[in-house]
Amino acid sequence: MLMLFGGSFNPPHIGHRIIAEIAYDEFKPDRFLIVPSKNPPHKSIDFIANFDKRYSWCEMVFFEHYFEVSDIENKLPSPSYTIRTIEYLSNFDKNIYLLIGEDSLKNFHKWYKWEEILKKVKLVVYPRYFEEKKPDSVDFEYVKLESPIVEISSTDIRQRIKKGKTVKGLVDDKIIKEVLKEFS
Ligand SMILES: Nc1ncnc2c1ncn2[C@@H]1O[C@H](COP(=O)(O)OP(=O)(O)OP(=O)(O)O)[C@@H](O)[C@H]1O
Ligand SMILES: O=C(O)c1ccc[n+]([C@@H]2O[C@H](COP(=O)([O-])O)[C@@H](O)[C@H]2O)c1
């Protein structure tokens, strides 16, 4: 079984690590892939660090031996549609679990070929809101993790840095210097 956790990771934060650790513990997949998105679809971001930087931050944050940080979306066509990543990974393992946060779940029915995705993966959702938010007007199956809500986001981290506020504890110590340099 392979678990896929994709994201912009702009930058990776402690919330991402908590999500990955809890999902790993719950499912114990044979492979757990962290996949930084080369060109995240549907995302308007004030600023995105280049792929190589985000990839190397992920390697430092997800250092445990059971995590594999993958550069596949750097090689696959742009934009980084998840269906393409899944189709590529299906060559290696057909039992794929796709891990997403509850905010992504809300818009999941707007993803490119989302119905195709659901035929190929089992969806695992990490809660992000105290009040459950289900996708609008569509119904599909997913497993929701029972886990603490983590109110940390990359957007907030970038904004804090711009305002000169600390992000210690929100971002892994190993990458904090580089992250501050990137987003100041
Ligand atoms: N605090 C969180 N709680 C639950 N899910 C999260 C959290 N942070 C990120 N995720 C999920 O992790 C995946 C990758 O997230 P992403 O890299 O976009 O981080 P983000 O904090 O949501 O970034 P941004 O603020 O730039 O949108 C997405 O599926 C997202 O829903
Ligand atoms: O395939 C899509 O249409 C699609 C639309 C939105 C998001 N995604 C993927 O979902 C993951 C989290 O996205 P994001 O924008 O919240 O960082 C990341 O791997 C994206 O490539 C994928």
What features would you describe in this structure?
- With 184 residues, this protein is of the alpha/beta class.
- The protein has one domain: 3-Layer(aba) Sandwich (Rossmann fold), CATH 3.40.50.
- It has 8 helices and 6 strands; from the N terminus they run E-H-E-H-E-H-H-E-H-H-E-E-H-H.
- Strands 3-2-1-4-5-6 form a 6-stranded parallel beta sheet, with helices on both faces.
- Nicotinate mononucleotide (NCN) binds at residues 6-8, 37, 40-43, 80-83, 104, 111-112.
- Nicotinate mononucleotide (NCN) binds next to strand 1 and helix 4.
Please provide a brief summary of the model.
Belongs to the NadD family. This protein is α/β, with parallel strands linked by helices.
Keywords:
184 residues; alpha/beta; Rossmann fold; 16% strand; globular; binds nicotinate mononucleotide
Characterize the largest beta sheet: strand count, sense, and whether it forms a barrel.
6 strands, parallel
In the sheet with the most strands, the strands line up as 3-2-1-4-5-6
Rounded mean pLDDT is: 95
Question: Roughly how much helix do the residues carry, as a percent range?
Answer: 25-40%
Structural class: alpha/beta
Order of helices and strands: EHEHEHHEHHEEHH
CATH architecture descriptor text:
3-Layer(aba) Sandwich
* Distance from first to last alpha carbon: 40 Å
The small molecules bound here are: adenosine-5'-triphosphate, nicotinate mononucleotide
Question: CATH topology, anyone?
Answer: Rossmann fold
Total number of helices: 8
Strand content: 15-25%
Overall body shape: globular
Number of domains: 1
CATH homologous superfamily identity? HUPs
Unreliable spans are none
- Overall CATH class: Alpha Beta
